Known about the structure:
Strand order of the largest sheet: 4-10-9-8-7-5-6
Number of domains: 2
CATH superfamily of the largest domain: Type I PLP-dependent aspartate aminotransferase-like (Major domain)
Order of helices and strands: HEEEHHHEHEHEHEHEHEEHHEEHEEH
Structural class: alpha/beta
Oligomer: single chain
Largest sheet: 7 strands, mixed
Number of helices: 13
Bound molecules: pyridoxal-5'-phosphate
CATH topology of the largest domain: Aspartate Aminotransferase, domain 2
Number of strands: 14
Amino acid sequence: MSERARHLRERALRALPGGITRSTVFVPPHPPYAARGVGCKVIDVEGHEVIDANNNYTSLIHGHAHPELVRVAIEAVSSGSAFGLPTPAEVDLAELLSARTGLAHWRFCNSGTEAVMMAIRCARAHTGRDVIVRFAGSYHGTYDDVVDSAARGIPESVRNSVLVVPQGDAEAFKDALRTRGPDVAAVLIDLMPNRAGLKPADAAFVELVRSQTRHYGALLIVDEVITLRIAPGGLASVYGVTPDLMTVGKIIGGGFAAGGVGGSPEVLRSFVPQGAVSWGGTFSANPVTMKVGRAALELFDRGAIDALNAAGDGLRAFLNASGIVANGKGSLLRLIFERPEDWWHLYHRGLLVCTNGLMALSTAMTRADIDRAGRIIVETLGKGGS
Ligand SMILES: Cc1ncc(COP(=O)(O)O)c(C=O)c1O
């Protein structure tokens, strides 16, 4: 570790709990500090350059400092970075998301966590019920209702209003709805949960969840915070399922903090200004985020999405053929780390992935970058690798 990195770490330990802001990016003893990013590369404060397959936890579909996005961002900031008024930019992004997902109405916020929190509030307000059903092992951010209810800091009351069922277990799911169905406001599902191994959900199970929610008058919330990048309409569209509420985040901000909830006008009616739910957010629908997010999504049209998915499928096939477990679909991959040092070994060899092995490709990567990433993974995680 260089003198500079050591000094930064010491200052961080004095100023931040555990020396860090995001528990999710922590790798012991301390993660490297990023200095800058260009295209698909990140350079840390020690001058070490890595291929970025983390992409700020899947949010950067075009890598770093994409020239067009930089231009849009500078132009947006130059016209004023935030207003106590709505701006046309939120209408533009809502229209784009409506066209892609088929969900007519959108509400914006600043993160995926907030989007899930809003969707849950909306479902409760819409149905007049309290209970949320979600699936074990899925990560939906840090709101009380979606984290382990036994964790310290979570109120006792959460245990009575959230049911956690094993994903894919049809009998357990039907059982939960048989007993609590009339109290269930919503079922929350991620169709390819990263923390549970990034395996696509079973289609028959997804169909069951859709039909049972309808049967019991509960809403179906599909969390597409990570999976929106898989298809213009999100992973739900690949399953042919229309959610009542869709939560999005990450890629919709083009690299800036963003979240959003989509649904039908009827379901989102609670959010109209005189409606049941008052919801603001000083930086919600921030014009810089909305403009750059829209530009990023416009560059990520069906052709670009398909090409990136094909590149991801190619990399996964190469890894699997080389004896490496790589789950996922399209441009999202998940490696399985067997040793705590695996992240560091990849990093030292020149590849940045998420701390749990999640990877997301970006359009900034060339074929050569992806091939090199594949070789680094095989050298590191393959038999005899280190
Ligand atoms: C599926 C899913 N939902 C919600 C979230 C929370 O999003 P954020 O980190 O923007 O709060 C995440 C974050 O990784 C996620 O993967």
